[in-house]
């Protein structure tokens, strides 16, 4: 099995032979029930064929090395990118401009931030934030395979205060790692990582405005946004906020807080929702 952070040149794990045809078939599967069943069946076959190796592929206009085993995000991006938050990505792309500032909190291996960077807005500033060291290494590798000068990554958690924080790891799906215990099997293993508030990060990066924020933090969105609105000047409040709607995990009524701050819901999909201001 390849190392989780294999640094060999991009292309070393390029799809070959029958895998290429199976991958094309999975990526062309339709949005309906039959299309999903077909794609998932093909995915099982391809996972067996890979035997633990990664795959190098160009997706969303960006080169990525993906490890589709213990990370649902990587599975979706590699095998079925058409199912990877397509309405959300379209909304984000429709709002992008040359001076666009986008913060991707919980960037994982780069699905959103690389997609945004590939939109060709040369003056945009894109910041990817990922706290898990091994996932961060995969993110950095993917960023380095592309010529996007407007994309930066930092390795920390975003929390309600600066310092350190404990993450609860889900080894079956690293995308489920959170500041809160969310898995059905209890706390599992933990990891202590540096943490900063969103306001601290925006200040350190020198932002005078933020156009969009995407949060994928498994139910800790309220821990990030409530202190940000309390402490940050209104000029820094993002125009667009995209996140999972996990109200059952939030301590506060986050949609109510967003409404009080002038946001309105502009999109809702099966898993995510988007609020816009102005």
Give a short overview:
The protein is an alpha/beta fold. The protein is 32% helix and 22% strand.
Structural account:
Helices cover 32% and strands 22% of the residues. The protein has 278 residues and is of the alpha/beta class. It folds into two domains: 18-82, no CATH class; 86-277, Vaccinia Virus protein VP39 (Rossmann fold), CATH 3.40.50. The strands form three sheets. The protein has a seven-stranded mixed β-sheet with strand order 5-4-3-9-10-12-11, with helices on both faces. α1 (18-27) runs antiparallel to α2. The longest helix has 18 residues, at 33-50. It is globular. The mean pLDDT is 92.
Fill in the keyword field for this structure.
2 domains; Rossmann fold; single chain; 278 residues; 3-stranded mixed beta sheet; alpha/beta; 12 strands
CATH architecture of the largest domain: 3-Layer(aba) Sandwich
Q: Quote the CATH topology of the largest domain.
A: Rossmann fold
Q: Give the N-to-C terminal Cα separation.
A: 50 Å
Could you say how many structural domains there are in total?
2
- Largest sheet, spatial ordering of strands: 5-4-3-9-10-12-11
| CATH fourth-tier homologous superfamily of the largest domain | Vaccinia Virus protein VP39
Uncertain ranges: none
What is the radius of gyration computed over CA atoms, rounded to a whole number of angstroms?
Answer: 18 Å
From the spread of the alpha carbons, the general shape counts as globular
Biggest beta sheet summary: 7 strands, mixed
Individual helix count: 9
What is the class of the largest domain in the CATH system?
A: Alpha Beta
Q: How many strands? A: 12
Q: How confident overall, as mean pLDDT?
A: 92
Secondary-structure content class: alpha/beta
Strand content: 15-25%
Helix % is 25-40%
Element-level helix/strand string: HHEEHHEHEHEEEEHEHEHEE
């Amino acid at each position: 099995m390849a190392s989780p952070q294999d640094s060999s040149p991009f292309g070393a794990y390029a799809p070959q032979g029958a895998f290429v045809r199976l991958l094309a078939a999975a990526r062309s599967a339709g949005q309906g029930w039959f299309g999903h069943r077909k794609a998932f069946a093909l995915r099982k076959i391809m996972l067996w064929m890979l035997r633990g190796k990664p795959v190098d592929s160009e997706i969303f206009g960006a080169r990525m090395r993906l490890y589709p085993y213990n990370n649902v995000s990587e599975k979706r991006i590699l095998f079925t990118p058409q199912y990877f938050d397509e309405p959300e990505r379209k909304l984000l792309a429709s709002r992008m401009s040359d001076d666009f500032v986008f913060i991707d909190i919980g960037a994982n291996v780069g699905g959103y931030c690389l997609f945004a960077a590939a939109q060709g807005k040369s003056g945009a500033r894109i910041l990817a934030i990922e706290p898990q060291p091994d996932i961060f290494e995969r993110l950095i590798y993917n960023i380095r395979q592309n010529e996007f000068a407007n994309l930066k990554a930092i390795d920390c958690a975003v929390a309600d205060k600066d310092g350190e924080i404990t993450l609860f790891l889900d080894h079956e799906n690293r995308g489920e790692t959170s500041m809160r215990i969310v898995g059905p099997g209890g706390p599992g293993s933990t990891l202590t990582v540096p943490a900063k508030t969103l306001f601290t990060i925006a200040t350190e990066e020198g932002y005078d405005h933020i156009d969009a924020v995407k949060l994928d933090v498994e139910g800790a969105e309220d821990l990030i946004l409530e202190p940000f609105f309390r402490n940050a000047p209104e000029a820094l409040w993002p125009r667009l906020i995209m996140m999972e709607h996990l109200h059952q995990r939030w301590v506060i009524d986050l949609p109510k807080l967003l409404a009080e701050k002038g946001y309105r819901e502009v999109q809702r999909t099966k898993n995510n929702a988007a609020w816009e201001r102005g």
